[in-house]
Design a protein that fits this description.
Layout: E1 29-32, H1 36-39, H2 65-78, E2 84-89, E3 92-97, H3 113-125, E4 134-140, H4 149-154, E5 157-165, E6 182-187, H5 189-194, E7 217-221, E8 233-237, E9 240-249, E10 255-260, E11 264-268, H6 270-276
Parallel strand pairs: 6-7
Antiparallel strand pairs: 1-4, 2-3, 4-11, 5-6, 5-11, 8-9, 9-10
Helix pairs in contact: 2-3
């Protein structure tokens, strides 16, 4: 679920009017426990979210709890705070609240490829392979991901960066070069330093409980501090990563690379960092 302050059971659902207990979002902080299995359902549509700005467009994801959870995260990533959509199943109405605002125009038309990538990165950042809630700070080169000094001070442990596109059907190339459903990650520079450059130690432990059975492709260090030529991302700044390269296949069948500038980096608090990466030494108190 989205938000950093809630005592509600995140495995339960809330129908409109059933409870007034809010799930609060502060800046770009979120609680992450979306499962990879639910994300891999790949039932998301690029079509307009709503015909009237209030009622969710018809989707099979409304039919069961897993689908509704995926919708909750998706709409939370796409729409800003203050906007929400409702959907009704068997006389029960559910409300899906916006939180971050990476694709506000989705209310008015189909989701463009660039926005598909931003929403994908946000969803990937919220995956938790252990089914537990962890507070995360989301950062990247998007105005919707702006953070203040208090958040940056509380969440100093850089973890994993995410990018990809889960909206495109398998085998279809979009105008930005994606083919099919792509989910990628790379380890942050601070994470690499914390783990003494041991790549096996800084794979996305929080995201995938099992390395052998994970749909997320871990590409290595976002910015390789030992060998810049092997860096996954070629553009690094205080605002985040850009020009991240993911393996692809050219139309000729030859190996190629797809560029991603829509990258979201997760920062953790020290206790959570230590819990998920016990072989690594946090760089900040």
């Amino acid at each position: 679920m989205f938000g950093c302050a809630s005592s509600a059971d995140p495995s339960s659902e809330e129908a409109v009017g059933a409870s007034e207990e809010a799930i609060v979002s502060v800046n770009r902080l979120s609680m992450n426990r979306l499962s990879m299995n639910r994300l891999s359902m790949n039932g998301l549509s690029m079509n307009r979210l709503s015909a009237n700005g209030r009622q969710l467009a018809t989707t099979d994801l409304m039919l069961d709890a897993d689908g509704r959870e995926l919708l909750r995260y998706t709409i939370g990533c796409a729409l800003p705070e203050g906007q929400s959509l409702i959907g009704t199943v068997d006389s029960t109405t559910y409300r899906f609240d916006g939180r971050i605002g990476l694709a506000p125009d989705w209310l008015r038309g189909p989701l463009p490829e660039k926005s598909q990538r931003w929403v994908t990165a946000c969803l990937l950042a919220h995956v938790n392979g252990y089914g537990v809630e962890v507070a995360i700070s989301l950062r990247g080169r998007n105005p919707a991901l702006a953070t203040d000094s208090a958040e940056r001070l509380a969440y100093q442990q850089e973890e994993i960066s995410f990018f990809g596109n889960i909206f495109q059907p398998l085998g279809k190339r979009d105008e930005l070069g994606d083919i099919g459903s792509r989910m990628y990650s790379c380890g942050g520079a601070l994470l690499q330093m914390s783990c003494a450059d041991d790549a096996s130690a800084f794979v996305p432990e929080r995201t995938c409980a099992s390395r052998a059975d994970c749909s997320l492709s871990f590409l290595g260090a976002c910015r390789d501090l030992t060998n810049s030529t092997t860096s996954v991302c070629k553009d690094v700044s205080l605002q985040g990563y850009g020009r991240c390269q993911a393996p692809a296949t050219a139309m000729s069948g030859k190996p190629a690379a797809t560029r991603y500038d829509e990258v979201i980096t997760v920062f953790l608090q020290r206790p959570d960092f230590s819990a998920f990466y016990p072989l690594c030494t946090p760089l900040f108190p």
